Structures are given as structure tokens and as C-alpha cells.
Amino acid sequence: MTRTFLVKEIADQAGLSVATVDRVLHDRPGVRALTRARVAEAVAALEAQTRQRALVGRKFAIDLVMEAPQRFTHEELPTLQPAVFRARFHLWETAPAEEIAASLDALGRRGSDGVILKAPDVPAVVAAADRLVAQGIPVVTIATDLPLSRRHAYVGIDNRAAGETAAYLIANWLWPQPARILVSLSSSRFRGEEEREAGFRQALRRLCPDVGIVEISEGRGIDTETIALARRALTQDRSIGGAYSIGGGNTAMLTAFAEAGRRCTVFVAHDLDSDNARLLKECRISAVLHHDLKQDMRTACRHIMRAQGALREVAGAAVSPVQVITPFNLPPGL
Q1: CA of 170: how far to CAs of 166, 203, 211, 262, in Å?
Q2: 1: pLDDT strictly greater than 80
Q3: How many CB atoms sit inside 10 A of residue 6's CB?
Q4: How far apart are CA 145 and CA 305, in angstroms?
Q5: How far is CA 223 from the centre of its chain?
Q6: If pLDDT is split at 50, 70 and 90, which confidence band does 258 have?
Q7: How far apart are CA 308 and CA 306, in angstroms?
Q8: What is the pTM of this model?
Q9: Is 150 within 8 Å of 96 (Cβ atoms)?
Q10: Is the four-CA dihedral 298, 303, 307, 312 of positive or negative sign?
Q11: CA–CA gap between residue 204 and residue 198 (Å, rounded)
Q12: Fewest beta carbons less than 10 Å away: which of 106, 155, 200, 245?
């Protein structure tokens, strides 16, 4: 400690005399435990201040690699003063896994301070992420995980718990009328969506064993593709009376219900984007399971800073909390 900070600096920070701090630093007898703790806290505070000063003007060039609908990829990169982040965006609404893997390999050749990744959990993408990590480029997955990869961290909600929450809401809204629920995934390749569907299915079976599920997938969250899948499902099954939208395309699903002359008794969706906020205000959907994507992006950036040695630890919860938003508790400004 004395090699890093002057005894006087520690004394000023702790509000103690130089002589007292000197006794603590040299482990001399006759010093109370509380005084030793104050000196340790002062040293920790000085170390934190030093790290903060070291971040001033430090720049991180990071890459966002995401297969997601436009509504998701329009999120802004957060401000994390005093560090400066410069982002390069590699975005697709839909892309073959090989194209995403090739993009990750290109980043390995080009260089990056870190990659924030939302991509399918398939072998080609996992292998490409591992190659980046082997080159010393940290990878942080967001919203959907690659749990068998060597990624540095996952940031987002507990997807299985989110699915269980949707089942709880739908079970209580539907009861006691029997019906089947239309469950929509953008793609079964995403681990996060699979986990939501599994949690939903398991909880609904426990809460309402008489309620069935009709699943549609590969709509990519795009309206034109989702509406075709929803129309087909509604035509084939007249008992569908509600919906759980895991992968987006919510306006398209509601349009399909209206075209079929069917009432959607309960509709639970994910993510409070502008479309879902409008649908909530119009009371066309029942609830949105929302989490703060901007906070997730900040957390992802902090994980990259930690991997680069700029932070000692990443504060806050490892998993984002889920909020249930209804037409009556919409945040201001939406």
C-alpha cells in the first residue's frame, strides 16, 4: 500500500493522523479494528479514484453483431463516461449462420476491443465466437446466449422465467374458459426464444393443463412472414383464443386474428418498443414483458471494460429484471 500511495494521502482520505496510518500499515499493536478498517477503506477508495482517472479519454472500439429485427437494432450505444465507446455495427434482420460466422472471423483479422453478440446458438457461430476469444477479443452475448461457447458473459433476462411469467398471466386471464394459445417464435435457432417457449410450456401445463399450445416459428419477427404463419394456424385450429409472442411481429398476428373474425382474449408480448407501446395504449395487447435494453447494453460494455482490465468488477445484477407493463403503467414518454 505504501508503494502505491503516500501515507499522507491515505491519512487525508481516512481522516486519520499520519502516525495512526503508519502504525496500521506496519501492523503495529495498539490499533483498533475499526481504525484498521477505515485505513483499508481509504486505500480502496484511492485505488478506485486511480482507476477512474485512468479511464479519462480511454477509447474502446467495439463491434455489435446482431441478427434481429430493426426495432431491436435501433438501440443506441450507452454513454459510459469518462471512457469513450466507438461502435461498428454488423446487423441483419435475417442471415445464414455462415455469414454471421464469417463476419466474426473478419473482426478477428481486423481487431476489436470487444464484441456484443446476438446470434443463433448453432455450431458455426459458437466456433467463430470461440476463435475470437482465443485471439483475446472478449465476446458478450446479449438477449440470447451461447452457453457452450467461451463467451465472457451473458447479459439479459432469465428467458425461462420470462416464459413462466407469460404462462402465469395468460392462465389467470383465460381461466376458466378453455382455449389454445398461439405461440410465435422468430426462429428456433435462438437459445433465448427456445428457453422462453420451454418455460411457458412447462408452467402452462402446470397451471392450466387443459390449455393447449399451437406453435409457429421462422417468421423472423417480420410482419410479412409472421402473418402468413398466423393465418395458416388460425385457419387450421378454430380453438385458438390467445397469443404469446416470443419473437415479434405482433401487429401481423393481431391482423391475422381480425381477418379470421376471431377474438384474441389475451395477448402477451416482449419488449416495450414503439409498436408495442402503441398496441398497449390501444388495448390491443394485454401485457408486455419488458426489461431495460439500454441498461443491458451498458452492462455489456462494462463486461468488455473488465475483460480489457479497465474495471475490477461489473456492478449490478447478473440477470435483468422483467417488468410486466400493461396499458395502465406505461412509462412516461411512450
Answers
A1: 6, 11, 10, 17
A2: no
A3: 12
A4: 20
A5: 23
A6: very high
A7: 5
A8: 0.76
A9: no
A10: positive
A11: 10
A12: 106
CB environment 173-205: b (16+ within 10 A), e (fewer): ebeeeebbbbbbbbbebbbbbbbbbebbbebbe
Q: Residue 188 pLDDT > 80, yes or no?
A: yes
CA–CA distance, 196 with 156 (Å, rounded to integer): 13
Q: How many CB atoms lie within 10 A of CB 40?
A: 14
Contacts of residue 135, defined as CB under 8 A and 6 or more positions apart, other chains included, come to: 108
> For residue 327, what pLDDT band results from cuts at 50, 70 and 90?
very high
Whether the Cβ atoms of residue 189 and residue 122 lie closer than 8 Å to each other = yes
**pLDDT tens, residue by residue, 63-93:** 989 987 665 555 545 555 556 777 788 888 8
> 132 vs 104, 124, 199, 277, CA distance in Å?
7, 13, 32, 38
Lowest mean pLDDT segment, chosen from 70-79, 145-154, 235-244: 70-79
244 grid coordinates: 404469446
Secondary structure of the chain in the HEC alphabet? Answer: CCCCCCHHHHHHHHCCCHHHHHHHHCCCCCCCHHHHHHHHHHHHHHHHHHHHHHHCCCEEEEEEEEECCHHHHCCCCCCCCCCEEEEEEEEECCCCHHHHHHHHHHHHHHCCCEEEEECCCCHHHHHHHHHHHHCCCCEEEECCCCCCCCCCEEECECHHHHHHHHHHHHHHHHCCCCCEEEEECCCCCCHHHHHHHHHHHHHHHHHCCCCEEEEECCCCCCHHHHHHHHHHHHHHCCCEEEEEECCCCHHHHHHHHHHCCCCCCEEEEECCCHHHHHHHHCCCCCEEEECCHHHHHHHHHHHHHHHCCCCCCCCCCCCECCEEECCCCCCCCC
Which amino acid belongs to residue 172?
Answer: N
34, amino acid identity: L
